[in-house]
Amino acid sequence: MAIGVPLALVCAALTLAALLRFSFLAYCSAVLFASFDSYAVLGDLSAWYSSHAWLLLALLAALAVYSFWTALAGRPLLGDPEA
Fold first, then answer.
1. Does residue 65 lie within any of the structural domains?
2. How many domains does the chain have?
3. Quick check: is 53 in a domain?
4. Which of 1, 15, 22, 47 could form a disulfide with 26 if both were Cys (CB 3.0 to 4.6 A apart)?
């Protein structure tokens, strides 16, 4: 109990600092990737909980593609095509 409150304050401060410094997109991806370890993705794919894992994987893939597209900022994927 004695370590719980200071640790929670440190985690909250780091989360806020990351949110303010890197953007909301970085915060969302961090939250999604942090929740990834709670799903058994490579286990039994026919189990009742596998749909949740597939949904999380789809969200992570969509977030990665959107982040990559945003980072390019309109530039071509493989560099300058005229060069």
1. yes
2. 1
3. yes
4. 22
Q: How far is CA 5 from CA 8, 19, 20, 80, in A?
A: 5, 21, 22, 52
Token pair 């990559």: residue: 68
**7 lies in some domain:** no
Return the exposure string of 36-49: e unless at least 16 CB atoms fall within 10 Å of the residue's CB, then b: eeebeeeeeeeeee
pLDDT digits (tens, 9 = 90+) for 29-70: 777 777 776 665 666 777 777 777 788 788 888 888 887 888
Q: Which domain holds residue 28?
A: 23-72
pLDDT at 39: 60
Could you give the count of Cα atoms lying within 13 Å of 70 in the half-sphere of its Cβ?
10
Radius of gyration of the chain (CA): 18
